[in-house]
Amino acid sequence: MDLIFIADIIKPHGLKGHLKFFFYNEGSDILSDNELVYLSNDLDLLELKIENINLVSSTPLIKFFDINSRQEAEKYRKYKIALPKSVFKKDDDTLFLFDFIGCDVYFDKKLIGLVKDVVTFSGNDLLLVKTDKGKEHYIPINKKLIEFFDIEGRKLIMSNIEGLLDIC
18 with 78, same domain? Predict the structure, then answer.
């Protein structure tokens, strides 16, 4: 099953098993539409059922069935929340950040490397691109920089960002 990571669990909140989490896409209501989610910490993959979710507080909160104390919730600190790729409904005009993963990235006509992941730092979305020499670069995703994107052909052409690849 292909999973898409959508949030990081930060820490427990309160005494009854609630967890604070950081949503990668703050405007999304995808968790409200799904009652089952997956939690992963690179070692474990767990399927949990959502009991309650609060997206309107300053830090979103989630409560799972069978996690009823702060001590139980503490076990899930630093887990990531994921959903199956199949729950993301899209039409021909919809584009998700995970669509970039696995694409070849070009600056103008020069191949830079392959998108290994999309990460979010301080609200900015970045492509993690690995070159054929093994170097990794973070490249900002900005609509103004994207010249061409072929999702079927797995090709992304961006405007050259002068000096960006020299930083790493």
Answer: yes
